[in-house]
Write a structure and sequence with these properties.
Blueprint (H helix, E strand, L loop, with lengths): L1 H10 L5 H7 L7 H24 L2 H18 L6 H29 L5 H29 L2 H22 L28 H27 L7 H24 L1 H20 L4 H29 L5 H27 L6 H22 L5 H10 L1
Length: 383
Amino acid sequence: MSNALFSASFNMMIPELPAYLTKLGGEDYKGYIIGVFTLMAGLSRPFSGKLTDTIGRVPVMVFGSLICVVCSLMYPLVSSVGAFLLLRFFHGFSTGFKPTGTSAYVSDLVPANRRGEAMGIIGLASIIGMAIGPAIGGWVAVQWNINVMFQLSAAFALLSVVILTGAMKETLPNKQPFRFSLLRIHRDELFEPLVWGPVIVTFLTFFSYGAVLTIIPDYSTYLGITNKGLFFTFYTASSMGIRLVAGKVSDKYGRIPILKISALVMAASMAMLALAVNPAILLAAALLYGMATGLNSPAVTAWTVDLSNPMYKGRALASMYIAMEAGIGLGAWGSALIYHNHASRFPLTFFILAGITAMATLYLSFFHVPKNYEEQLARKQAN
């Protein structure tokens, strides 16, 4: 419930922000809406990973949700492009902290042989938030105004905090009290080298997500879709439908086969977007893209935990999420740069994204030397 509310809070505003920034005079800065957000999320990951492994999972999740409350209330107060982008930058703290603590918390609760299924369930909660958020946000912005939408976003995040503080017990044994010295990050705490494989796959497959967040609202308008959140509704419904099955399948057959398939399906969805000439094709591509991310996300998160040192689970997850933010941020910036507010460039943008996504399958097929993580899991369970 907490994860669904948190996800709804910050996803609710995404379809409306490009038009909001344009009204402020920042039409040429649409790529930065997601870019600066993910930059801060990525920069904060080493801190969230370390704090997750020291002060506990729940405090890290609470901090991330509180950032959403504060930032959502501040959007109506900004009146310039610079102030807007600065606020987006600090808003990125939220996703830099909340998902790291959540994934570690969930992995503490479940047996290793059902880890993929569990990550599918928690991912389903995020997807539910992603489904209802843009739909509610778009409706509220149309019926009332965008400032009411920002206030509703803050209310959702506050409810997430209430659940975290009132209903969830800490799972980290021997947690430490917070002290400022914990914010000093040493070189070996920046990245977990055991999870290079998941990091590379995550980076390549989330490039497209940054682009989708950035230019799909404009693409929807160009193809005649009034509700700019409709693509995300179709994408989310498809992703919801496959996540539970995908998690179980990755537990049974392994993470790598599922990740190979998901990257190919994702590349196909980008190619379909490049060829879209009407709303029906765009929404069909949304369904295919949702299926691909539904396959990908539980498998890559479980794979990260599989390979990590249990003492530094937060660091490993933070490393994977850094790759995610880097992919989203560069995808947002790069797609906006290629598109550059010219509708004739939509096909080129999505064909390039298809090629980048397909590289994940090539990496897993020809360059990655897989370790037998099932044996690693057996050893961890024995210990």
